[in-house]
Amino acid sequence: MTDTALSNAVRAAVECQGVTWFGRGRVGDPDGLADQLALALAAAPDMATPECLAGIIGESAQETDWMCSLVEYGGPSTRYAPYYGRGCIQLTWRSNYAGFGQWLADLGLISDQNTFVDRPDLATQWPYPWLTAIYYFVRHIGAGYWQSHNWNAISGLVNAGRADYYVPAYELRAKSCSAALAQLGGWKWNGEPDMQLSDIVTRPDGHQASLNDTLAYMDQRMERLESVICGGGLEVKNQDGSAAPTWLPRWRGSRRTSPPCATSSPRWPPTRTSAVASAS
Description:
By secondary structure, this protein is mainly alpha-helical. The chain has helices spanning 4-15, 30-41, 50-63, 94-106, 115-118, 128-140, 143-147, 151-160, 170-183, 211-231; strands at residues 200-202, 208-210, 233-237, 243-249. Strands 1-2 form a two-stranded antiparallel sheet. Strand 3 (233-237) and strand 4 form a beta hairpin. Helix 1 (4-15) packs antiparallel against helix 9 and helix 3 (50-63) packs across helix 9 (170-183). The longest helix has 21 residues, at 211-231. The protein is globular and about 50 Å long. It starts with a helix and ends in a 31-residue tail after the last strand. 37% of the residues are buried.
């Protein structure tokens, strides 16, 4: 069942800027995004407070162009490609993808800490986009900032790594954080969601299905992705679109001597709920 307060907070963080949710093409609907945020919080329950979530939701709203894109515009042409911005608070540069993978491995959610270095696009698959935002708060945002509602300082840390860095556009982020907090006033985290496989969940694209069917779909997608990576090739097409009988190794011309195959796939939902180290 969707957490209404989380859904309302996600929606308010966007609509407070003067455009209705459905006035633009978003990455999902509020209920679906709230469901994914609830899943992400199961991995980081220490961050599940109204003030912290208001900061996460408000910053994420602006970082994603008001929930319209999980990928940095023009990312493939940046000097740090393929490690351009992905997620709700966007990961950039290889070191940050590596750090994110290490954090998830420490929580027991993935067995290979290099998962996101090897497969950076995975950061756009739910619930990982919300986890990129939670990760940033865990690593870089001291609790005192969100406890005191110092939204501008948080914006400075997100954008420049400095709490004293300020530009007028941060007022938009502060407005979103405040709007989200207004919806989370009496909200309390009750621990890991009590869900059954028969429960209906809403994906960010609005599609509804049982939790069992959703997990089976995710497993199938992961297996297909892994088979392509482990197979090490891209199918060659003839000019008329028909499949040619040969395969070209994906790593031809590089130093790689074996397929770029991950040793294991991420596990979701979490197999355990772990306390997150308090931000300093």
